[in-house]
Design the sequence.
């Protein structure tokens, strides 16, 4: 392919002329076949002709730019692009920060809710297990229930178990551990009423 044919292909006026000729041929065929699109094709052809004339006029009135004018135009274009880019990047940055914050809040709420539900279900399971043990212990009748009720009222079980350390703990032959703590059989004595000061 020669340089002349490449230049002709890149010339917009030549491309407009080829497209206009093709539209005129199609409009002629449409007129022979009574196709209603013939008028539309004619209108497109006229529009392309006007575009060609406009392009010729723009090229005829265009003033050449010197190197300084091209450099100034390039600088202004770069500045406009940079300003637009910074504005868009700032908007994206804010949007990303908001979305990150919302995502973190959703994850935190999910973790808190999940932890609450897990703890609640674990506590419910422990209460059900303890209820089953108590029900089994009380299955002997009212005497057993009364004995357990008295032991619970008279003894602070958590405080007693906290004393199960060191020498207070031993292991029997089956491997079970035991602890020596006092099991109170009587109620806590009522505190003596304070006496008024002697005057």
Sequence:
């Amino acid at each position: 392919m020669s340089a002349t044919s490449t230049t002709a292909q890149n010339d917009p006026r030549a491309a407009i002329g080829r497209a206009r000729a093709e539209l005129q041929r199609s409009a002629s065929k449409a007129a022979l076949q009574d196709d209603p699109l013939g008028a539309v094709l004619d209108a497109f052809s006229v529009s392309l002709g006007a575009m060609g004339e406009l392009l010729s006029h723009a090229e005829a009135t265009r003033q050449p730019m010197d190197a300084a004018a091209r450099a100034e135009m390039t600088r202004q274009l770069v500045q406009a692009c940079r300003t637009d880019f910074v504005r868009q990047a700032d908007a994206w940055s804010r949007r990303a920060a908001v979305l990150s914050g919302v995502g973190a809040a959703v994850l935190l709420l999910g973790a808190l809710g999940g932890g609450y539900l897990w703890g609640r279900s674990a506590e419910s399971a422990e209460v059900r297990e303890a209820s089953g043990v108590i029900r089994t212990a009380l299955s002997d009748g009212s005497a057993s229930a009364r004995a357990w009720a008295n032991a619970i009222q008279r003894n602070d079980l958590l405080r007693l178990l906290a004393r199960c350390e060191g020498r207070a703990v031993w292991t029997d032959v089956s491997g079970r551990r035991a602890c020596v703590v006092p099991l109170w059989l009587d109620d806590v004595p009522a505190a003596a009423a304070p006496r008024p000061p002697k005057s």
Remarks:
- The helical segments are 3-10, 12-32, 38-61, 67-137, 142-154, 157-162.
- The chain has a mean pLDDT of 79.
- The first strand starts at residue 169 and ends at 171.
- The two ends are 130 Å apart (CA to CA).
